[in-house]
Amino acid sequence: MINKNHPRYNSLVLREKIEKAYDDGYLGKTAMIAHGRGEAFDYLLGEETSYPAKRSMYVAVARLLLAKNPVISVNGNTVALAIDDIIELAENINAKIEINLFYRTEKRVEKIAKIFKEKGCNDILGTNDDEIEYINNIKSSRATASLKGIYTADVVLIPLEDGDRAELLSKAGKKTISIDLNPLSRTSKASDISIVDNIVRAIPFMNEIVKDLKMQTIDLLEKIIKDYSNEDNLKDSLDSFKIKGDIKWKL
Ligand code: PTJ
Predict the structure, then answer these.
(1) What's the whole-number average pLDDT of the chain?
(2) Which of 174, 176, 125 is nearest to 147 (CA)?
């Protein structure tokens, strides 16, 4: 049990979630390394959602609301950290959820599908008995996608995605929205809308934005997308990294 007064309480809670997911056997082989990298970037961001991240989230929600077949891709880390908020977002924007693992094994897929089932989600895609296709006919495990989901999706939300897969989805003509704390990752660079924020803050914030943008006209949503430059926003995201800590601290 982590003491609530611990100065790093929130961060420790996330570590505990990652550790539990590892014990439950559905985390990827290098998931803890990925989490640690994210933690380091978040530290430098002051563990706060930056203005550019908020801006990209508005555009992302507009894009998702206008999509014909939006899909939220989930992997081990995403499930461990944000499953409830992801389910809420999928309901809010009428998106499908697809299990899309970089280190795919039948066992991991089965465990993740079971977790969703226990939460009342019975139509999860990307399961072991789903119809799987190869994107751009690339016969590699990197290119697998559900026929009803990512394979035919026009817009895909890809939290904590591996660079190879992000680039592949982009090349396949999908509009991709990444959530990645590293603004310099191949995923952030390859995406159409790059949200540089922690998934545990980003998805709840997007759920709030949906409430607002759902009331707006299609014209306005289209304008939000048209006025946005991901390249500029990514530069601004990079600029928001500064060490905000105070080193004048003594016991
Ligand atoms: O479950 P699997 O098999 O699909 O594997 C999932 C991981 C994340 C292990 C896999 O996709 C992977 O290896 O990803 P990468 O290439 O390490 O990229 C993950 C990115 O997510 C890195 O740029 C991290 O900085 C970032 N990241 C880590 N934790 C968070 C994060 N971004 C947002 N929120 C986080 N909490």
Answers:
(1) 95
(2) 125
Q: Which atom of ligand 1 is nearest to the CA of 39?
A: 29
Rounded-to-integer distance, Cα 119 and Cα 140, Å? 31
Which residues' Cβ are closer than 6 Å to ligand 1?
28, 30-31, 34-35, 37-38, 41, 75-77, 81, 101-103, 160-163, 179-182, 185, 198-199
Can you spell out the DSSP letters for 141-180? GGGEEETTTGGG-SEEEEET--HHHHHHHHHTT-EEEEE-
Question: What separation in Å is there between the alpha carbon of 59 and the centre of ligand 1?
Answer: 22
- Which residue type does 123 have? D
What is the per-residue pLDDT across 11-48, written as a single tens digit (0 to 9) for each?
999 999 999 999 999 999 999 999 999 999 999 999 99
Helix (H, G, I), strand (E, B) or coil at 184: coil
Global pTM value: 0.96
